[in-house]
């Protein structure tokens, strides 16, 4: 049976846009270092990667090398591991060490002068870098020029100070699109399902979120109501006859 163009059907605009932009799909990352959360999230088959930071690692009580090695066994995707040094040469040395843990490690550097210097040096050695703590389009442009693999603008933290974090996502994606930068935009500090959806609509390649936010994306009262009714109707029709 013919379909699509063969049947005279015009594909919707969003399908055409997806093809035009390379057909990439939004990725879901979990922003956690907790192994139990990662195992549960991974079991759903929708987790594409993980982001960690020194605070999240500290909560788990193990050295970063040990913890991210375990994370890489659970999630088959990019795992961001952040340096804790603040001087460029020390960041580079630490980044090289982290990158050796597993092929999926993405070294995370802060958006400081030293962090950008380290990013540039690591990128030239083929190390993928996630530049974090981005709060302006100008900072994002600097990171892209330094060869960042990922830029992490923080939506929720901008909202906290009265700015509109989602506008930053839109600005960065537009600038990168204008000039063909390959740096992926990772929307960070996502605190609700609305943040996740809005960042996807704004063009972010990746949304990273706490486990509870990913879990909340499943929920809708009409889904629960509909399933309950389906099962009631089925059981009423096919329930065993009372003896």
Automatic annotation (TrEMBL):
Cited PANTHER family: FRUCTOSE-6-PHOSPHATE ALDOLASE 1-RELATED, TRANSALDOLASE
PROSITE patterns attached to this UniProt entry: TRANSALDOLASE_1 (PS01054)
This protein's record includes keyword Transferase: yes
Classification via SUPFAM superfamilies: Aldolase (SSF51569)
The protein's name: Probable transaldolase
HAMAP family in alphabetical order: Transaldolase_3b
GO biological processes: carbohydrate metabolic process; ketone catabolic process; pentose-phosphate shunt
Reaction catalyzed: D-sedoheptulose 7-phosphate + D-glyceraldehyde 3-phosphate = D-erythrose 4-phosphate + beta-D-fructose 6-phosphate
Keywords per UniProt: Cytoplasm, Pentose shunt, Schiff base, Transferase
Primary site of residence: cytoplasm
InterPro entries for this protein: Aldolase_TIM, TAL/FSA, Transaldolase_3B, Transaldolase_3B/F6P_aldolase, Transaldolase_AS, TSA/FSA_arc/bac
Pathway listed: Carbohydrate degradation; pentose phosphate pathway; D-glyceraldehyde 3-phosphate and beta-D-fructose 6-phosphate from D-ribose 5-phosphate and D-xylulose 5-phosphate (non-oxidative stage): step 2/3
Pfam families for this protein: TAL_FSA
Location within or outside the cell: Cytoplasm
Annotated active site: 108
